[in-house]
Amino acid sequence: MSLVFFTDRDLGLQFPTILESAGLTVQRHRDHFPHDCPDDVWLEAVGVRGWVALTHDGRIRYKPNELAAIVTHRVALLVIVGKATNAELARSFLATLNPVLSFLNTHPPPIIGTVYRSATGDIAEGPQRPGHVELWYPRP
After folding, report:
1. Which pLDDT score is estimated for 118?
2. Domain boundaries, the chain
3. In the chain, N or C: fewer CB atoms in 10 Å?
4. SS3 for the chain, per residue?
């Protein structure tokens, strides 16, 4: 079974388009839910479908109802970290795809991982340098 990445509304239109252009299977928030859909509702649907949720909302993991939805519906959630445009975040995510896939293979849902871009100095040396992924939930 191939992975399906679900992009939250906060990742905009460019992020999923860039991932699709690289050959990844992507489902967009706007294609399945109204703009104001509560996070716990789409998290449930993503978990039921077995998709990997991608978000740039770093606060989502601190909200009790959203964390409960992640746990109850066995969601694999990756929080994309970094101050950059959505296009830059997408390119960084693609550069970090191998560590992301390894992370997903070794951590069954429910999980929350944080995906970090490579360090600023590293990016200047080469924008395709991979970042890294850290487990946020469950706590190691």
Report:
1. 81
2. 4-137
3. N
4. CCCEEEECHHHCCHHHHHHHHCCCEEEEHHHCCCCCCCHHHHHHHHHHHCCEEEECCCCHHHCHHHHHHHHHCCCEEEEEECCCCHHHHHHHHHHCHHHHHHHHHHCCCCEEEEEECCCHHHHHHCCCCCCEEEEEECCC
